Amino acid sequence: MLGAGEVIGKFQMSWDGLLDHEDEPFDVSFPPVRGVHPSLTLKAAVVHACDNQNDAPSDSLVDWEISRDTDAGHAQIAEYVSSKNVSHLNAAVEHFQLVLDQCPVSHPDHATSLTNLAYARLEGYSRNDLQDIGSTTSLFRDALALRPQRHLDHPLSLYNLSLALTWRHNKKSTTADIREAAQLYRELLPLCPEGTYLHRIVAGANGIDYVIGECNALAIDASDEGIHLRRVVLELCPLGHQFRPRALHWLAQAVEARFQQCGSIDDIDETIQIRREAVFLCPEVHGDHAGYLSHLASSLESRFHHQGKTDDLDEAISLHEETLRMRPVGHEYRDFSLDNLGGALIIRFNQHGNINDITRAISLRREALTLRPPGHLYHDTTLHNLALALKYRYNKLHVSEDLNEAIDRYRECLRLRRLDHPERHTTLFNLSSALCSRFTHAQEKEDVEEAITLCQESLEALSSLHPDRYFSYKWLYEAYWSRFWVLHDPADLSLSIENFRLASRHPTQGFPYRIVTARNWVSAAEQHSHTSVLEAYNTCFDLLEGHLATRPSTISRRDAAAAFSGATSLPVDAASCAIRHDNLRHAIELAEQGRGQQWSLASRLRTPVEDLESANPRQAHNYLELSRRVSNAAQSSASITNRAAADRAATEYRSLARQWEAVVAEIRGLRGFSRFLLPPLYEDSQAAARQGPVIILIASRYSCSAIIVPTLGDPHHVPLPSVDLAELTNLKNRFARAIRDASKMGPKVPRNDLIVLLRTVWDVIMMPIVNVLQHDLKVKFHSRIWLCPTAAFTSIPLHAAHPFRTNPDRSKEPCLEDLYICSYTPTLSALVRSRQMMKKRVTPSFVTIGQGKPGAGKGKELLAVDGELELVHKLVPATANRTTISGDAATRAGALEALQQNTWVHIACHGKQDRTQPYNSHFMMKDEHLTLLDIMERDIPHAEFAFLSACHTAVGDEETPDEVIHLAAGLQFSKFKTSLARCGKSTILSQNMSLKLSTNICSKI
């Protein structure tokens, strides 16, 4: 076996001493080298110079000559290293070349001879005595190819090739070489156990640490290849490695750069997770700690822009404040902290409008500008950022000095940013925005013309999928809109609408920005009756649904929806628009899609799959299994308070959600399942009218009307010209006061205010509807009808509409309840869902749950509860399985268990609607509240009927009224086919009415 590597010692022994060992191997030890004790096992044998047949040199003699030249080459290398005499290097190369010539490719020592020659040449190259590194690297590559994985010398060949690549990179700064060296070290490190000689030289300052440092110094590359390299470098820095925080930082920089180019939420999530680890590993006393905090804060801001989570913005500001505290006046990086904190305060100002935030942001950025005078590397950036802050303050206070200074700062920044500057496009479209604002104020045509040109130039600088194209489109539609507003050219309106469309549909920008743009598109199209208005509404719904689907929990989805101004009225406005365009079917579809979004997103994991199981059992199994996993992930994430853990849970949830969506897409490809989990078409929703017509009452700022969905055929429109949204809102408020006052009156005191209000409801709302039911649809008297109110209609007792008039023959004019049996439904889909038959019929069971004495501080005692429970229990037939839970047994857990085990439920207790967070609405039990969210998260397989003898169980949500999120609707969501509830507070009178109603219901069992 030939030696291949540095000379570590010399060994001398006489022939006699060598031959004394005969054919037995023996060990030779050498002094320690780099803490390792090298040894060699030798075996001596006598060979003959020639073969017996043709006197040719024997193979053994040839091997001896190869060994002799190899030893001579190593000796010359050792002399060269100590004397630096090039003649020794040349002699070594000559010896090793002779060996290689005698070792063809088939020779077992060919790889070693390649290595020895390459090693000698590399020694000369590293000392500048040889210039050809290309052939040296090729020799090492050839040797590695002959030593595949599991070969004894495979690790050594990996090291040799990486050494040659790092030397070439050191002298020529070739990026490809240091990238390949990192890949080789990644493979090599696991093959070098600690304590071995190879591990010592690999892990040293000239080995892995050098490669890590050089890779970290490379320019940020957001390509997949560039990010892969950063991951490789991180693998070279295990926990405890001194360079791991820095490797984490540069990996985060690369992944975030890809996010900025492509807009993938997974990238910004991963960036934040990586940055959190870097901060954790770097204590506050470390010089890089403040920098890592600052980068984490900036990444949190980016995610806030993309997803709109206020927790991200709050944490970002807190981190920027902490970083500024760590960088007092005189600190070399104080300018960064000033600028960054100013940016975060601007974001918060745009959210909440607190003038103190924007004033402080401007002050911070002015201080940063003094620290970055002309000629400073970041002078242009600070000019741009100060201009941005001034422009936002102008938007709030309309002080022209702010706007003019912003324009001047933008222009100065633009002069400093060359055409190839990576952020030049942001200055272009932000200057465009400022000029557009000045045009709106001063109406100088040159400003808007320049604004349009600047936006067009910014678009030319960006790739088709760059997230920032959204802003170019946004400011273009603002510019065209401003010019249309002043000059009234219809072409500008069309151009503005087109850029609304492009901005709201730009796929790599986050949902929040695009939803706001689509909402503005709706307003503009409505204002000018543009033909794109229905398209704008549809875009709003699609974006909002996509945004809400990224939220794992029910509450987080509701909070995300409530964050958008104007989103609450979107469903009814869309329906009104479709009505005005004579498209009643689409009006119903829009109302259903918009009003039922929260329920549909919550229920999509509970959709019955009996038909799918018959058609494709495998897909049904995959769907159910993934639905279970997504649901579990959502519920577990809701209880996580640690931000890093919450980020990881959110990433896991999205991964599962994507798998779930892929399975749903496959199901939609099956015959008969093309509409699986999609918003219902009119034909689907009409099933709600199977047992009687459904009347949808639309309350929009544009019009108020009703749509009647009949059992068969097309829907009917009923205009309500005598009432508008403002009048309805006033009517709703008057009802609330009248009902509150009536609850304090004695049973014999006339309710005059209520009589006047109910007569108004009859005259302006219900009578026109009744006329259509009677004369156009021929609906029989005493038939059942379903009322589906929206917006202000939800708080008006429509079923109680009454003319309170007498006919000429002295008979009383009939009221609504004399003519039809009225029921309510929050949406058509809820009614359809509640009628779905259970997979297995079960024996009916009835449970009464009563809590008249809730815990301390949970409300006054309800005196009639015990009597109500006793009466209901008596009225239920003895043949039915009946149970009563009350007193100390009426706990949250006991009530939930009873709901899951029974088909009919009667609940008598205090009820509370939480108007700010409706999913926290609750029934008051003995220990804890039984919340709407508790009920929604439970599987209640046998639910049929619920009677809610509790106050506020049918009162909706203040911020999302058209989602009708209340306790009664939640029970319908949980598969109760019918639920009875009330809107007002509990009084002795209402409790007595509940008793009478309970008597009537139980008599029907």
Question: Can you describe what's shown?
Answer:
It is built from 41 helices and 15 strands. The protein is an alpha/beta fold and 1005 residues long. A hairpin with a 4-residue loop joins strand 12 and strand 13 (929-931).
Q: State the end-to-end distance.
A: 97 Å
Radius of gyration: 40 Å
Poorly predicted spans: 984-999, 1001-1005
- Tell me the major beta sheet: 5 strands, mixed
Number of E-type strands:
15
Mean pLDDT metric: 86
Major sheet: order of its strands?
A: 5-4-3-6-7
Break the fold down into its secondary structure elements and pairings.
Layout: H1 15-19, E1 26-29, E2 39-42, H2 59-83, H3 86-102, H4 110-126, H5 134-145, H6 154-172, H7 175-188, H8 197-202, H9 208-216, H10 224-235, H11 244-262, H12 265-281, H13 289-307, H14 310-325, H15 334-352, H16 355-371, H17 379-397, H18 400-416, H19 424-442, H20 445-460, H21 469-487, H22 490-504, H23 511-527, H24 533-549, H25 554-562, H26 570-580, H27 584-595, H28 597-603, H29 610-615, H30 617-638, H31 643-668, H32 682-685, E3 694-699, E4 704-709, E5 716-719, H33 725-742, H34 752-776, E6 784-789, H35 816-819, E7 821-824, H36 828-834, E8 845-851, H37 865-875, E9 881-886, H38 892-901, E10 904-909, E11 911-912, E12 922-924, E13 929-931, H39 932-936, E14 945-949, H40 967-973, E15 978-980, H41 988-1002
Helix pairs in contact: 2-3, 2-4, 3-4, 4-5, 4-6, 5-6, 6-7, 7-9, 7-10, 10-11, 11-12, 12-13, 12-31, 13-14, 14-15, 15-16, 15-17, 16-17, 17-18, 17-19, 18-19, 19-20, 19-21, 20-21, 21-22, 22-23, 23-24, 24-25, 24-26, 26-27, 30-31, 37-41
